[in-house]
Amino acid sequence: MAFIFKNLSLSSSVFFYAIPLLLSYLFMVSHSHYLTNPTPFSSINATTSNVSAGGQWLLLHNSIGVSAMHMQLLKNDKVILFDRTDMGPSNFSFPSGTGCRQYIDTHHRNRTITDCTAHSLQYDVISGNVRPLYVSSDTWCSSGAVDPNGTLIQTGGYGSGIRKIRTFAPCDDGKCEWTELPVNLTDGRWYASTQILPDGRVIVVGGRRAFSYEFYPKTDDVSSKRYYLSFLEETTDPYEENNLYPFLHLLPDGNLFIFANNRSILLDYKQNRVVKELPVIPDGIKRTYPSTGSSVLLPLKMNGSLDGSDKPEAEVLICGGSPPGAFNMSNLNRVFVSASNSCGRIKLTDPDPKWVMEEMPMPRVMSDMLLLPTGDVIILNGASNGTAGWEDAANPVFNPVLYKTYEPDPNLRFVVLNPSSTARMYHSSALLLPDGRILVGGSNPHEVYNFTAKPFPTDLSLEAYQPPYLGPIFAALRPSILTIEARDSIVSYGQMFSVTFMLSVYRPDPGISVVLITPSFTTHSFAMNQRMVVLDVARLENLSAFAYKIAAYGPPKTTVAPPGYYMLFLVHAGTPSHAVWVKVQ
Q: What region holds the Glyoxal oxidase N-terminal domain (predicted)?
């Protein structure tokens, strides 16, 4: 959640800095084109070493022992990563005599397998340490969301796990583990999607041959039901499907946007009623699994209406995918057709929403799209040919692309960034960290771990991408949060709270923004529950030469920002602070 505060008069003492700070300021001004006019694709050198222009990749671990098919950041700065559990041993063994499980290998003559390796890990963002976690049922191609108390609600999977509900509650003593609940999902949920709702429930939508949705927790007869949704059946292509892992976005009016294949609807899930069917996205490209594109709900910017009567604009951006028949061609014929370079953007709060098409600098399938604190979108990972699936893609795309959400000229919205040296193909994932970096891991386009496969062996590494805003030339523009003046760091709906922070060089235009971003559950190129809200700002005070206090209002209602934990960033002149965790309620 952010707000641009322009009309601020500061005391003259702010500008009488020491010589080093003046030099720093002059250096910033001389490089200010990086803030407002990043280099477009036509002129950028993709291999440049200029960190501020194109970002920087950092290797965190050569191997964490598990391929990161799924990722979830929790409020204690720990990331839960996990793979499937039915593909044989990982490269991370539990201590002798612990963590063993037996399962029936349905892929190879129903053998009984004893496996004493971890298929889930906890990664500590601060220390870099990893800790093995035991998960009993199969989490292959599952989904998740974080509830208002900060607990990961993890749903579905394959085989023994297809109806399972698991939870992981964060802890600080290093002893928390997965809990598998005795209550099950009503339908099998393999390749389903989840979304946290305004009342704190989780809705689980779709899955293979599951043309329905349901809710968690399972507290009564209503929540234990499944609700048939014909849209999911109608969007199923013969053999290819192309409607798995549907894109879900909760809109400020409380309706749920659901996109599958190349179609989308607005669902009133309370009444089990389709409110509106939206236009088919042009160009015929398939966008959901296995023709996997990606989708984000663009930032929700508050507009001064604290009672929520004047709802913020809601826009969805969907990029990439593959043409009809691409999965058949790759899976059956080993012919990898070109993915799509198109994006569609639609303003759902318009009376008559229409898709506006744009073009990325290169075709992409299986890419992740993440919201940055600046409001821009980063697109990374994936391939330029083929589809999702085991060994069904070719030609990895190493360069991330920055999508400049607020750039009025569509020809200048895409910026190609510095490349990784690691192919992130099928079953890779990425998420935003509180320090503004992007955590990237996974890539296993094989049925089992295969470290000799060519050209894309299983990858167990973990790396971080530092976007251009973390470049050293922006250090003086980066706010540093000191305190949140809100009881127990709770941000209440519609209520004012304050943040004190330090800043070396203040630029009144564009000023300071206050941003809330949810931690997403990322798998299969979709960051579920991803959300950014830009808060209304009441005032900005200059406390001393480098100290400031900004007062902002909490989000107006639960449909704008569902209850739970958010990362709060301050953004100044395109440069975000390190986030602090707050609870919205």
A: 69-469
- Confidence check: pLDDT of 41 > 50: no
Confidence of residue 510 (pLDDT cuts 50, 70, 90): confident
Count CA within 13 A, CB hemisphere, residue 98: 8
As a whole number of angstroms, the longest Cα–Cα distance in the chain is: 79
Q: What is the pTM of this model?
A: 0.90
- Quick one: tokens of 252? 């400020």
Contacts 24+ apart (CB under 8 A), 353-361: 353/278, 353/279, 354/279, 355/279, 355/281, 355/282, 357/282, 357/283, 358/410, 358/413, 358/414, 359/414, 360/319, 360/320, 360/401, 360/414, 361/41, 361/401, 361/414, 361/416
Which residue did the predictor score with more confidence, 158 or 34?
A: 158
| All structural domains of the chain | 281-419 (no CATH), 475-584 (2.60.40.10)
d(CA 188, CA 208): 8
SS (H, E, C) 140-154: CCCEEEECCCCCEEE
Helix and strand totals (H; E) in the chain: 5, 45
576, 513 contact by CB (below 8 A) = no
Name the helix (H) or strand (E) containing 497: strand 496-502
Q: What is the pLDDT of residue 31?
A: 34
Q: What pLDDT, on a 0 to 100 scale, did the predictor assign at position 47?
A: 29
Contact predicate 191/210, CB 8 Å: no
The string of DSSP letters for 269-336 reads: TTTTEEEEEPPPPTT--B-SBTS--EEEEPPEE--S-TTSSSPPP-EEEEE--B-TTHHHHHHHH---
Query: Distance between CA 522 and CA 162 in Å, rounded?
Result: 18
Q: Is the pLDDT of residue 128 over 60?
A: yes
Q: Give CA separation, 192 vs 162, 208, 321, in Å.
A: 10, 8, 18
Task: State yes or no: pLDDT of 18 exceeds 50.
Answer: no
pLDDT digits (tens, 9 = 90+) for 407-464: 999 999 999 999 999 999 999 999 999 999 999 999 999 999 999 999 999 999 999 9
Does an H or E element contain 231, and which?
helix 230-234
Return the pLDDT at 99: 78
